[in-house]
Amino acid sequence: MDALEESVLASVWRQGGFAFCQLMRKCRSDPSMAEEAHDLAWEQLHLGDWHQVDCAWRDGYALACVYWAEELRRKGDHAEATRVLDMGLMMGGLAFRPRLNAAISSLSQASEPPSAVRGDDQLTVQVASSTSFCPFVLPPGSLQGPPMRTMAFPSIQKFLQELFAPGVPAILTDTMAHWPAMEKWKDLSYFHKIAGNRTVPVEVGETYLAEGWKQELMTMSRFLDRIHDPGDSTSRAYLAQHPLFDQIPELQRDIVTPDYCACGDGELHSINAWFGPSGTVTPLHHDPHHNLLAQVVGTKYVRLYSPELSDSLHPFSDPMLQNSSQLDLDKPDYERFPLAEKLAFVDCVLGEGQMLYIPPKWWHYVKSLSPSFSVSFWWRSS
Ligand SMILES: O=C(O)CCC(=O)C(=O)O
């Protein structure tokens, strides 16, 4: 074992993971032990609150994934090996991320490209054009006020002075034309080709507040199928708020972090993918970060309410949902929430190649009007 592996095992040992460490040491002579070690670490990740899981266990889990995937590869099960490595990337710590990525890339070179799940013709279907609106109903009162402020490729100074410092939302145009994603992502077969056999977490259901909503792990190919055939709203699949670009570096090369994210302390918190069919809804909520929501493919309706209106938007009292409103904008119950009826908001249809600046704490509701791929850049400022 190398120095990094030894140091991670020493940390897991200090956390009481004696059996795990013994199994991992045995892996050298008996690689089949890796699966048992993996299962043990998996249990540890699921014992309590995710945020309380010690980093040592997350790194230990990732290491077990590396070993188990090697064993699966030796046995010729490349698909399962890739799934295990993806689980390591999604659930494991950062220490073995380069090893996991290297193993995935070596596996993909050694494997056949994923075979088409549907007919080839359908896999080359264009995801959407900015004019192809679907017939989804927008929340009452939408798009009736003055248009949202729009700036064409503002300088950093203008962005800082007119939007960032005063906390003013606005659409930024002409800032993404140079992204390779603008061309490449229009074609679903691209995702199929570079990531068809990769496992991704997908939200299934009407919204994360709806009954029956759940998260599922599925291969990208299966998810792409669900974009073609979304089914009814209760089975709608949304690859939402996932750091896909950490998981699949090829996709990271297709996007460019906007220079605006250097404003303030300039510490990038996360870059997330929001990829789904028409009709996905992210209910009214707010986040603590500055946000640039970049619309790469398709169109989305976005409605924003100022943080000053928070009380009238009736946040949930449950600590897990305190940043979400009880007001369902698609079926607003103004008898129950009368204060919310007359509140001022700004809204827009965010088109391909446009970014929306959402200042911290601004409430936002988002509905996709076509198959859509957006990227959010969240950054902090004290
Ligand atoms: O695009 C969406 O569905 C939601 C985006 C969002 O909530 C965010 O970027 O914070």
TrEMBL record:
Q: SUPFAM superfamilies in the record, alphabetically?
A: Clavaminate synthase-like
What is the protein named?
Answer: JmjC domain-containing protein
User: Does the keyword ATP-binding feature in the UniProt annotation?
Assistant: no
Q: Could you give a GO molecular-function term held by this entry?
A: metal ion binding
Amino-acid biosynthesis is among the record's keywords: no
**Family recorded in the similarity comment:** Belongs to the JARID1 histone demethylase family.
Domain JmjC, first and last residues per copy: 237-382
Stored InterPro entries? ARM_KDM8_N, Cupin_8, JmjC_dom
Mind listing the UniProt keywords for this protein, alphabetically? Dioxygenase, Iron, Metal-binding, Nucleus, Oxidoreductase
Classify the main location: nucleus
Write out the annotated subcellular location: Nucleus
User: Mind telling me which PROSITE patterns this protein's record contains?
Assistant: JMJC
Which cofactors go with this protein?
A: Fe(2+)
GO CC entries: nucleus
